[in-house]
Amino acid sequence: MTRIAPVLALALVLEVAVAAGIQSPSDSDRSLGAVHGSVMPGSGDSADDLVQQYCVRCHNERRFLGNLTLEEFDPANPTANAPVAEKMIRKLRAGMMPPPGVSRPPEEEVTAFVAAMEETIDAAAAENPNPGARTFQRLNRAEYERAIDDLLGLKIDASAYLPNETVSAGFDNIADVQNLSPTLLEAYLTAASEVSRLALGDASATPAEATYEVSRYAEQREHVPGTPFGTRGGISVIHNFVADGEYYFRLAFQHESTGNFFGQTAPFDEEIEVSIDGARIALIPLDRWMHRQDPGGVEVVTDPIAVTAGTHRVSAAFLKVTEGPVEDLTSPHEWSLADKKIGYSYGITGVPHLRDLTIGGPYDITGVTRTAAWERVMNCRPATPAEEPACARQIIDRLGTRAFRRPVTDSEVDGLMGLFEEGAREGGFDIGVRTALQGILASPDFVFRFEVPAAGSAVTGGLSLLSDAALASRLSFFLWGRLPDEELIEVSAAGALSDPGTFDRQVERMLADPRSEALGTRFASQWLRLQDLDKVHPDALRYPDFYQQLAQDMRRETETFFNVLVREGGSLQDFLTADFSYMNQRLARHYGIQGVAGDHFPPGDYANPERRGILGHGRRLPLTPPPPPTTPAASTTRTRSGAASWDTAASSL
User: Fold this and answer.
1) What's the mean pLDDT in 159-171?
2) Three-state SS at 523
């Protein structure tokens, strides 16, 4: 725990420690735990005089500044109006009151006054602790995706099944705003059905389409990770094929507002390659004169191609036929501009850009190949029909324990065995296991994060300690954004996680695990509102070298920076003033830093001291726009990479 940065420790205390019964006074503790009749240490008369002389002159019934009156506030008994006392403590501690320009009491009197109120309120909270309560909490999209990956080794896009999350205070996992409706319940049931069939296959699947889009702002002159070498642009995705059969692949391209194929001015004809797991399955020449009004539109479709069931990497990319400087008479842009406001005018080399990839099928199903997910689920295979129930029970017990984040009971296994038997009667052992898996994924114990009191814990005023299983779930979803692993489940099942020493050791282990990257990609990303920047695109005419890959690098810089500070015990001061960060070659070039090569993110020092700390990161600055230019010259000054805008913003912070 000592290695957690202060900014993370605060959130961890709110999320875990209070829930575990390790009581720590907080704002909510003090206001909810107010006890009448306590006496403030020190001279009540002097404290009352201070309030009347320096506070009531503004905060009274007549002036009512700040929507606050202190005429009836009793500083000798702050717990009688704890919310107001808390507000006063915060304002006085920050030096915000009394406001500038008016007389102020001596600093030592203010310090003594605040300390006395804090002591009284904290004592009342300790006497009657109340950490508050939470409503039910369900797995949101991100947590559902990671839970399926943990359970089945299957990567899915939860947005294909579940609706958008309600965001509160910038976070998408706030229990109080997680609504529940028949539509949402139906979505979880549909997801359980679809995911169980993706994991174990479905020989009776009907054809369906899945479309993967490429951002219009994405660079498509260079190699895209995941695509075969010797290609440029395009897209590479992980797709789950539900059965062995034939599938088609439809490729749509960017076009002009007039409908013309974007790429007519390229000095050579183009070919696009479709590959599965790196092996070419189709090579299609492109007609540069295709038009949106043509029968096929600005797209091409492959012939039906046989693909086996399971998870495969599908790539669609252009063959790279040239290397070297790109002919562009207007400006040597960092990226291939596909902006309809500029278009394919002569003088700008507009190479074709892929818009989206659609995978359709299966047709002519021939069976279901045993996939990696199938192997993970089927950890035993019955040799005879008589062995099927025992093997199925073993599979259900193991999957249920992991999915429910706790050991399953015999009655729960019996209920799931009923589903197995029903499915087995219709289609055999594999269909029976698939039906039981669907039941596990549709169970409220998987979808919802239920929290029960610890066994034998005394209930005082409606409060009790969380069970170790509930504590393990909170800890895992906070640090990893996913299910507890087997070790955490075993420790919680033994009742040892609530021991402070064991708790600290588990936190240290989990922070050292690569899965703790969720602190950056989930907690820090939403805390710093990095997701808002997906909707921010600088004017391509003024900043043509700000493109999608550069924006993604900026986001990864902030996430990596945060995670490293957490793991290495960085301080809040480092968070705000560090003169180093983590960047790859593309981002370093944008910042004007030399000597960085490759796509990895090693540590590096900023060349510009104005970029110190998190507020100087490129991914943060578009949320804090620069002030208007003070001179005509300033409005036209920019660098080749368009970084002047960000540097101006950094200098204004």
Assistant:
1) 91
2) helix
